[in-house]
Amino acid sequence: QVQLVESGGGLVQPGGSLTLSCAASGFTFRTSPMSWYRQAPGKERELVASISTFGAIRNYADSVKGRFTISRDNAKNTVYLQMNNLKPGDTAVYYCKNPSYDTWGQGTQVTVSS
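Now predict its structure.
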C-alpha cells in the first residue's frame, strides 16, 4: 500500500534552515508528481509546494516563494523540501503527498521560534 514517511523537522530559530525528506513506497514514484503540505495549529492544511515527475515544473505557495525549494530523487523514491530563512509563521506539521492517492503520512513537526 502507499506509504509516506516524512522526516527532518525540528526546532529552529527565525532565519534558520531545515531540509525535510519524504520516503515514498507503494506506487511508481518516478511517474508521480509529488507535493508538500503543511498544517498549523487551528488552521486548514495548505499546499506549500509541488513538483512534476522529473522536476521540470515546480510550484510554490506565495508565502514560501524564494525561501523554499522542492526537489526529488527518483532513484531513492524521495522528495525533499529545503526551507531557508524560516519564519515563525512557517511553524506547522509538514506532510508530503501523492495527488493520486488519499493517503497521508504522519508528518514532521517544524517549529520556528527564538
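The first strand starts at residue 3 and ends at 7.
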